[in-house]
Amino acid sequence: MRKIYSFLLLFMCVICTYAQQTITTVQGRPYDFGKSIAKAPEVSYQDYSMDDIEFWVGEGSNRVLFVVQFNDPRETNALVWGYRFDGDKRGIDVVTDIARADPRLYVLIENADASMGYTICGIGYDADGDGDISLTHIPTGQIMTSEDGVFNTLGHYDYDDYTATDPDDFFGAGWYQSYWSYWVKDGDGKFGYSGLGASSRVLKDGSWDGWNFAVGMSPQDFKPFKAISAPGYNNGTFFIGNEKENGAVNYLSTKNEWENNIYQANNNGLKLNSNILSGTFFGNNLYIVSGDKDNNKGNIIVAESNKLVNSATIADINGRAFVGVTPEKGYVSTDNGIYAIDLTTMTLGDLVTGTDNNKESGKMICAGKYVFAVQDEKGIIIIDSETNSIAQTFAGNFSGIAQSGDGYIWAAGSKLIKIDPASLIITNKIELPEYCKINESWDTWNAGKFIADPKSNTLYWTNGGFLSDTRSVYRYNPEENSSLASPFFSLPNEKQIFSSAGICLNTATGQLVITAISTEDNSVFIYYVDAKTGVLANTIEASQDFPVPAFTLFPDKAPTIKDVDGSITVPVNNAPIQISLQGKITDEDNVDTNITVSVISENPEIATAELKGNTLIITPLQGVSGKTTIILSAVSNGKIVTKKISLTINRELEGISMEEPEITMKAGSTKQLNVIFTPANATNQELKWSYENYSTASVDSKGLVSAKKEGTTTITAKSVEGNFTATCKITIVNEAATGIALNKTESNIYVNRTDTLDVIFTPEDASTKDVTWTVEDPTIASMYAYYKAITGKKEGTTKITATSKDGNFTAECIVNVTWNPATKLKLDKTSIPLQAPNGVSLTATFEPSDASNKDVVWSSEDETIATVSSYGSVKAVGQGTTTIKATSKDDESLFATCTITATFIPVESIAIPSDTTIAVSKSATLRETILPDDASNKSVEWSSSDESIATVSQYGSVKGIKAGTVTITATTVDGSKIANCNVTVVESIPVTAVTIAPEATIKIGKTTYITRGYLPSNTTTKIAYTFKSDNEEVATVDQYGNIKGIAPGNANVTIGIVDTELTATCFVHVVPNVESVAITPATADIIVGNQQQLQADITPAEALQGTTWDSSDKSIATVDENGVVTALKAGNVIVTATSSDDNKISATAEITVKDQLMTSLAFETEKQTIEEGEGIQLATIILPENTTDKRVRWTTSDYTIATVTSFGYVKAISQGDVTINAISQDGTNISASCEVTVKEAPSGIEKNVNSYSIYHINNELVIDNFSGYTFRVYSVRGDLLKELNVTEEHTCFPLDFATGVYIIKGNNGTNDIATKIIIQ
After folding, report:
1. pLDDT tens digits, one per residue of 977-1013
2. Is the pLDDT of residue 817 over 70?
3. Rounded Cα gap, residues 1092 and 1109, in angstroms
4. Helix or strand or coil: residue 1073?
5. What angle do CA 406, 407, 411 make, to 5 degrees?
6. Taking the model in full, what pTM does it have?
7. Which H, E and C letters describe 571-629, residue by residue?
8. Which of 270, 443, 745, 1088 is most buried as measured by Cβ atoms within 10 A of its Cβ?
9. What distance in Å separates the CA atoms of residue 212 and residue 223, rounded to the nearest whole number?
10. pLDDT of residue 262
11. C-alpha dihedral over 1180, 1183, 1185, 1187, to 10 degrees?
C-alpha cells in the first residue's frame, strides 16, 4: 500500500510541476502550492530608453525605469516613470518614493514578516485625476486614506480584500485570486520575472523595475510603454493675459485642454495686477512682472513653476522684465533703471548706476557674466553682473534683443546688429528693407516680437508696432542666405492683428506660436507655424472671455547630461582619463553656450578632475588605490543637474584569511566574523558568505553569524576577486535560563480590547526562550501566544502564567477586564441614491473608539427596495425610498440611519435559442439575452418540462438523461418574462464531416500547424485524426498534423477521422525563402503635390511576395501600402520596402522632392477704377497651377493714393493713378502690375481717415477737418470710454489714457468714419 501511495504522490508532483510555473516564489515569498500559478510569459523586448521618460522622481546620477501595468481594459499601455538616486537603493524604494512624489500613484504594502521584507499587495492610479486615492477594505467596509500615497494592510495575506474606493481609478490587489508579479532588468539583460522581492532587489544605474498585475493568476506580456507626464504644468503652454481688471495666467495642455486663471486658482483667489508686462522662467520659478507707472504699485510675483503656487512677492516696483544670472542673483528692468535682485531673500538690491535716465528699460538676456538690456533711445546696455556696473553701451534705437544658437546677441530695430558676448564687439550689421523693419517705437511688449532659435542661428520678428496693421512674420538665418524679400508667414485673415508680444518659439515641437486678435469682435486666435517652412500646422480659437494675450511662455526644461559612463575602474598608476563632453550636455530650450559646467572630485587624494574645453580629464594619483566620486554639474537658466561618476582605482587582491579561525558561541547569539585581506588596501574586498548547516548556524551577506543550536559547523568566506576562501569553525553551546519575568504584573483592559506581554529571561542571552502560556479563566481573557496578545472576553479578573521550556520557570500577570460602553454611533453616509442592482458599503463608527462592543445589527425598513448585509453592504432591489438602520448590538438606544433612494429598471424581454440537440449524458449551456441591458434584476429561473429526458441547472446548463424531446423554459424573476427552447435528446450524435484549411503556403524548412475540425461540434464520436501527404518530396506531415516544407512545389495533405470514411484535403504550396528586395526606380525626383509609383521586386520570384513601405520623413513624402509616394514639401527622403515574410530583408529608394516654381504671374484685370474710400480685391493668375509657393508680395507706387495689404486688397486714399505690383516669393522674382485709378468720391460717401487728421500727442486727441462730427472712443474690447463733439476745424481734447490701442468712431448724420490710435 505504501508503494502505491508513493507512486501516486510522485505522479501528482510530476503533474503539478508540469502544470504550474517553475518558480515557487512571488516577490521572493514562498507561494501556497495549493494555488495554481500560470507560467510567466517571455516578455517581448521594447525599444525604450531613459530619454523617453517624462516624469522623474528623486535626485542622483543613477537612473531607473519604473513601469506599472494594470491590465485594465481601459488602459492599453504600461505606464512609465523615472527614478534617480545615489547610494544604496532597493526596489521597494522606487515604488514608495514615486508614490509619495506623484499624487496620482498609490501603493498597498505589508511588512508583517521582516525576514522577507515588504510585499507589494496593491497598486493604484488616479486615472480621472479627482484626487481620491482612498481604499475600501471589503470585509468591513472601512475607508482607508493615506497622506503620502503609501497604505499598509490591516491583516496578514489579506490582499484580496481591498479595492479602490473610486471605481474610475486603475487598481489591482491580491494574493490568492490575483497578484502583482515583479519584473527586473539590469544592463543588457532580459526584462523578466524576478524571484527576489522588492526589498532584496539592489538597484543599479540603468535598471528596469516593472510591476505587472496577474489578473486571475495569469501573467501577461508587457504592453507598449507610455511615459507618464509629471503632474502640474510641465508640458503645455502658458498664455499670460492683460487688459482685464486683473491679469490672468491661462494654461493649454498638450491635449489642447484649457485651464484658465490657474494662478488665482492655486493661490486661494489671489489676483494678479492688470498691467502684466513680462514673464520669465528661471530655476524652479516663474517670475511675473507688472508695472503701474502712475501709482508705482507694480510688482514681481514669484511662483513655483510646476504648481504655480506663490512663493514670494517683490512689491512697489514699476517693473518691465526679469532675467536670472545665477541661482542667487537676478535683475529687473523698470521705467527708470535696472536693479539687482537677491534671489535667496527675494529682495530688491542696488540700482545699476547709469541706467536711471527716466527712460524705459525692457527685455534682458544673460550670457555668461554679462546682462544685455534694451533701453528706450539709449540703445543696448551691457551690465557686468560681477561688478554690478555698465561694461559697454551701443547707442541706437532698438526695441528687441535675442540670442541665437551660436551664443551671439542680436539687437533689432531698423537694422540688425550682432554682438560677440565675450569681447562685447559688434561683429555684423544688417540693414533691413523698409517693409520688414522692426518697429523702433517703444511700446510695452515690443521686445517679444523679436526672437531667436536657441538651437540655430535663425531670427524671427514681426514688423510694425503693437497692434499695428502689419500682419507679417520675417525669418532670417545668415547661414541659409535667408531671403527678406517676402514674409515668412502672414496672418491668414486681414482683419486680424498681432496681439502684444505675438510671437514665440516652441523648441520642443519646432513651431512658432503666434497670437492674434480680431479687430471685429476681439476674439483671440493662436496659430502654430512650422519654424522651418512657414507652413500653418494648426489654429486654435480661444474662448470669448479670453484676455488679450500679452505673451506666451513654455515650461523651462532642465539641462541633461547623456552618454557619460557612471562607473569607471582602472588599475593603479593608470594614465589620465579623458572623456569628451561634446554634445553630451545640452538644454533643449536654451543656448548651449549658456550652460555652465563644473566638476569636483570628492576625494582628490585618490584622483583629481578638471575641465578643458569640452573634455573632462580625470587624473588618478600615482601609486594610490581606492574609490572616489567625480561630480559633474551643469547649470542652465537656474536649473542644476549632476552626474556622479564612480571611479575605482583597483589594487589587486592576493589572498584572504579569517581573523578568528575558530570560535565558540552560545545558541541564540550572534557574532560578526572579520576577514583579513592581503594586501590590506586591496580595492575589491567584496565577499560571499556561506554556511555548512543552516539548522546549526547561518551567516548573512555581511558575515554576521547566528547560532541556532548545539553543534559544530563551518562558515566560509569567498572573495569575488580571485575566488580566495577562508573558513571559521563554529562550536555552539547552550546557555541555560535561570529565571523569567514579565514586563508587567498587572494588566487592565476592556472587553474585546487587547494588551501585550513580553517575557524577560535571565540571563538575557539564554539559548532557549520558548514559553507556554496558560490562562486561569479563559472565559474572562484569552492569550494569543504568537503575538503575546491578551484579549478581554468578559468582565472579571484572571491570571495569565508564562512557563519557560528551559527550566520550567514561571511568571504571572493579573488581568482585570472591565466593560467600556459605547456612547455614540454614526454612519459615514446619511443619504445615497442607488440604481438597482447596484450597491454601496456603509461604515459604522463608535465613540469611544475603544468601546468594548462595536458589533452592529443592520436592518432595512423595506427589503423590497433595498437590502443590507451583516457587514453593512447595501443593495438596491426595487423602486422607492427606504431607511437603512445600524443599531448597536450592546445598546439598542444607539443607532444611526441612512436614507436610500432606489430606482428600478424593469425587464422587458428575454430570449434563448429556440432549439438545440444534445446527446444522452452530454450537456449544453443555454445563454439568455435580457433587455434592456441595464435592467435592474436579470435573475432567471430555469425549468424542464420533463426531467426524465433532460435537466437544467440554475445557470442554464442542460443535461441529456434519455432520448426524447423536452422544453426548457427561462423565466425572469422580474416580470416573469418567458422564453422556451425545444431540446432534442438523442442516444448519439455521429460526426458528419471533417474540416481543414483549404490551402496553405509554407517556406522551405518551416513547419506549420493547419487548423482542422469536425462537424457537428457536439458529436459523441471519439475523434482521432489521420494525416497523409501525396508528395513527401515537397511537404511532409507528422501524426499531429504538423506540415513541413521540404522543397519548392505543391502537395496535397489529406486529413481523415479514424473508423470513418470522412476526409478533407489541404493544398500545400511550398515556396523558397526570400533572398532580396529591389525597388524600381531606385532614385526619383518628384514635384511637390505629385506622386511616383515605386515597384518592389522579391527574389526569387517564387518566394512569398508582399512588402511593407515606409518613409524616413513623412513630412517630406509619404508612401502608401502599394508603394505610391506622395510628395509634400521640398527635401530628401529615403523610402524603404521590407519583405513581409522576412523583416530583415529590405531595399531603399532615394527620393528628392522639389518645389514647382512659378513660371508666369499676371492680373486677371490689368486696369481698375475705384472711388475714394472704396476697396477692391485684386486677383492674380499663377502658372503652372501646381506651383508650390503661390505667395506674392504686394507693393504700391504711391501709398498716399492707394494702399495694398499682404493679400492684395487695395484701399483708395485720394484721387490719382497708382501702380500695384505683385512679385513672386519663391525666388523667381516674377512680377505683374495693375494700374489703378482713384476717382473722387460722391458727396455723402465715407472718406478715408488717416493718422494725419486724427492723432494723439502730449495726452491730447487732435482732430482736424471734422467739424460737426460726434466722436466716440472705445477700447479694443468695445467698451465706450469717452464721447467728443467737434465744433472747430482744429480741435484738441484732453485724453490721458493708459498705454494701449483705442478705436475712434465718428458720425455727422451723413457719413460714418472709423480709425484707431495708439497711446505709447
Report:
1. 999 999 999 988 888 998 888 888 888 888 887 777 8
2. yes
3. 13
4. coil
5. 110
6. 0.51
7. ECCCCCEEEECCCCEECCCCCHHHCEEEEEECCCCCEEEEEECCEEEEEECCCCCEEEE
8. 443
9. 10
10. 85
11. -100
